[in-house]
Amino acid sequence: MSCPISKEALVQLKQFIDVCKSNAAILHLPELKFFKEFIEALGGKIPVAPKMSAGPKVEVPEEPAKPTEEPVESDPESDIELDMSGCVEPDMLDENQKMGDPNKECTDEDSDKADEKRIEAMQQLSEGNVEKAIELFTDAIEFNPHSALLFAKRGQAYLRLTKPNACIKDCTRALEINPDSAAAYKFRGRAYRLLGEWELAAKDLRQACNIDLDEQTDEWLKEVTPNAKKIEEHLLKKERRKKEKEEREKLERLRKAREAHAKAAEKQDDAPDLGGAGAGGMPGGMPGMGDFYKLLQDPEIMTAFQDPEVAAAFQDISTNPSNLVKYTSNPKIMALITKLSGKFSGSGMNFPGFPGGAGGGFPGFPGGFPKPPSGASDPSANASHDDDNLD
Q1: Is residue 270 part of a domain?
Q2: Where are the TPR-type repeats located (predicted)?
Q3: Residues 111, 240: one domain?
Q4: Of the four listed, 79, 193, 236, 264, which is most buried by Cβ atoms within 10 Å?
């Protein structure tokens, strides 16, 4: 039997094998995955890939860096002018700021005592005794920790002491209890304004106006709107620039991918055909080894070859094709033969002697891969081409 591969292709194949012997790590490259899996399917073992080595690298000339036209991204408020008058230094949160027991079951008596403390606290607040008012509001919260109004009012008192963070903590708790508390939104919005959190301040004050508009809330909202609007517009422009930049980068990646694909196609066209002469790469129209390996890349076939029993059986058959008779009663082996038969017959390729082909030989099996012996059914004739028993 003459070699179906041309001398030039054999030389290149030998060079490739020599490279693999000197550096087996290249078999872990994604481009050579098919060859690695083929070796493993035949029972071969590939050395573990070294952690610090990625195999030979193909040097790609770098394009000269183009000067970027994008401005350096800055913080949202770095290049806009804001009126920061009226802002204060943030207060340190008081660890002793009591929030009551959220799991407490409040009785009618507790509610009555909480109301008494609240009335006393409001009286002290109106007289300017803010710290005393906070103590009384805290006593009321201990009696009834489920009242959003008590937390909102104590937050208002903290505002009088210029403690915006303490106010925010109380008002946030109030909104957890009652998401429709206009007072909690109002005082928290004011606290955010004192801290220079213009967007948050505008958001809370707008919500307070939507729930229960009053003159003071409307005045506070008008005060924070100019700064909040500047920041909102700035962020919109920044987001638009970001999307435009991402779109340009996406188009650039696509352009480079097309160029790389075109270069790879050129190299593929320039590469010699391992199959030699003939319409399919081998003499007589038989497909080249490259086409043969492509057929074996079917995921189901490769999964079957990973089965040690299947791999050992095919290695045994490749050593002596007549050993096929030993496996005619093995549904797993015969199912794979049926699968391969369907692949070859469906592709129009001529693999002589293999079920579904014509003649008497099969690439990779010395002397050809015979049809099943007499007494065994032809898998290509009596079995469907599905993948039963391959797993």
Answers
A1: no
A2: 114-147, 148-181
A3: yes
A4: 193
In a domain, residue 1? The reply is: yes
| Rounded (5°) CA angle 127-128-130 | 120
At residue 381, the pLDDT reads 41
Domain that holds residue 125: 83-265
* Residue at 165 is within a domain: yes
My answer on whether 16 and 141 are in the same domain is no
User: 3-class SS at 281?
Assistant: strand
Q: For residues 46 and 26, what is the distance between their CA atoms, to the nearest angstrom?
A: 10
Does 105 lie in the same domain as 24? no
Instruction: Tell me how far apart the alpha carbons of residues 16 and 29 are, in angstroms, rounded to a whole number.
Output: 14
pLDDT tens digits, one per residue of 333-386: 888 877 777 766 655 554 444 444 444 444 444 444 444 444 444 444 444 444
Using an 8 Å Cβ cutoff, are 46 and 39 in contact?
A: yes
Q: In the prediction, which pLDDT does 293 show?
A: 58
> Considering the chain, what percentage of its residues have pLDDT values greater than 90?
30
Domain count, the chain: 3
Do 145 and 209 lie in one domain? The reply is yes
Give the phi and the psi of residue 362 in degrees, each rounded to 5. Answer: -145, 130
Distance CA 20, CA 28 (A): 11
CB 352 within 8 A of CB 280: no
Q: Higher model confidence: residue 3 or residue 201?
A: 201
Using the structure block, give the residue that is written with the tokens 């409307």. 218
Pair (116, 251) in one structural domain: yes
Cβ-count burial 211-249 (b if 16+ within 10 Å, e if not)? beeeeebeebbebbbebbebbeebeeeeeeeeeeeeeee
Residues 100 and 201 in one domain: yes
Sequence-ordered list of residues with C-beta below 8 angstroms from that of 290, at least 6 positions apart, any chain: 273, 274, 275, 281
> How many residues can be counted in the chain?
391
Residue-level pLDDT at 269:
65
Q: What's the CATH code of the domain at 256?
A: 1.25.40.10
Is-contact 162 92, C-beta < 8 A?
no
Q: Where do runs of H (alpha helix) occur along 320-378?
A: 331-347
Largest CA distance in the chain: 113
> What amino acid is encoded at 375 in this protein?
G
Q: What is the pLDDT of residue 388?
A: 45
pLDDT digits (tens, 9 = 90+) for 269-294: 665 554 444 434 444 444 444 555 56
DSSP3 helix / strand / coil % (the chain, rounded to 5): 60, 0, 40
CA-CA-CA-CA dihedral for 13, 15, 20, 23, to nearest 10: -160
